[in-house]
Each structure stands twice: as C-alpha cells, then as structure tokens.
Amino acid sequence: MDIPKEGETVQVHSYKHDGHIHRVWQETMVLKGTRNIIIGANDRTLVTESDGRTWITREPSICYFHAERWFNIICMLREDGVYYYVNISSPFVFDNNSIKYIDYDLDVKVFPDMSYLILDEDEYADHKKKMGYPEVIDKILRRNLETLLSWIKQRKGPFAPDFINVWTSRYEFNKNMKSEE
C-alpha cells in the first residue's frame, strides 16, 4: 500500500458495503501518513454525494483514519468548540491517491463536552438486511463501537485535549508552505 506524504492533497472516498460509492470529499491535505494512520485536514472542500448532489463543508476539520480500527473521526472546528462526527466504517486503504473506506451507517456525534449520541441505528438495521452484512461484520462493528465509546470517555486519540491543537497548528504550517510555493 502506498503511503501519502505530508502536505499532499488527496481525496476521501466513502463506499457502501455493496461496493457503490457513497460520498467523495474532493480535497484533504495529509498532515500525517503512515501504514496505520492518516491524519488530514480540509476546509470548505467540495463533497459529492452518490446521487450527484454537491455541497461544501462549512468549517475546518481534522480527519483521523486508522488501518486497524473500524471507525474514522472527523473533528469539526466550530466557534463554540470542537464537534466530532464518527463514521463506523471499515479500516481505510490508500489507493490511487485516495483514502477509501466502507461506511457502515452507524455514526456517533460527540459534542465539545464529550457527551455523545449514537445515530442512524435504523439505517444500519435496514442496510444490514438489504446488503446482507455478515454476522462477523456486525460483531466487529459492535466491538469497535464499544472501543470508540471508551476512547471518548478516556479522551484518547483524537478526543485527547492536545490532539486538535497539534494538528491544527500542523495544518496552518502546511497551508502556509503551500502558499509560499
């Protein structure tokens, strides 16, 4: 597997279990790229939905992808604090200059005070039936949801207090470097 380099711009492709494209983020700047972790950032990037509709993200965000965890985390930097949107998903692969993963419907919204809501359980149940998610996938997703909730409670990984400051600074540094080129 290729590994993206710091400062490189990549796309993010979200798929569904049946192989259909779900959503594409046009530009995400890589802040860290290893075999296991990609941390990226974007601000006002174009997003294209599977039906062709497009929209632009509203705020800067730091994105965390892991090659062994079945979730990815979007940290949205808003005026009143950091909000997190977590996709329960397959681990990422990096292919053809794109971060790719399968979105498994369940989402977790985390508020600045670290309270959270689990979202889209009905959609998950519906898609599990329609797309035939195997029982082993269901068990893996449920186990990773529990891991994620413990990360939130322990303020681990992207939920750690210094995570946003470190990666926001790195994003600003890389943006400045690009503008000087």
TrEMBL record:
Record keywords, A-Z: Hydrolase, Magnesium, Metal-binding
Binding site for Mg(2+) 1: N87, D103, D107
Reactions it catalyzes: a ribonucleoside 5'-triphosphate + H2O = a ribonucleoside 5'-diphosphate + phosphate + H(+); a ribonucleoside 5'-diphosphate + H2O = a ribonucleoside 5'-phosphate + phosphate + H(+)
Domain DUF402: residue ranges: 18-156
Function: Has nucleoside phosphatase activity towards nucleoside triphosphates and nucleoside diphosphates.
Location of the active site: R23
Protein name listed in UniProt: Nucleoside triphosphate/diphosphate phosphatase
EC number(s) recorded for this UniProt protein: 3.6.1.15, 3.6.1.6
Binding sites annotated in the UniProt record for Mg(2+) 2: D105, D107, D120, E123
Residues annotated as signal peptide: none
PANTHER family in the record: PTHR39159, UPF0374 PROTEIN YGAC (PTHR39159:SF1)
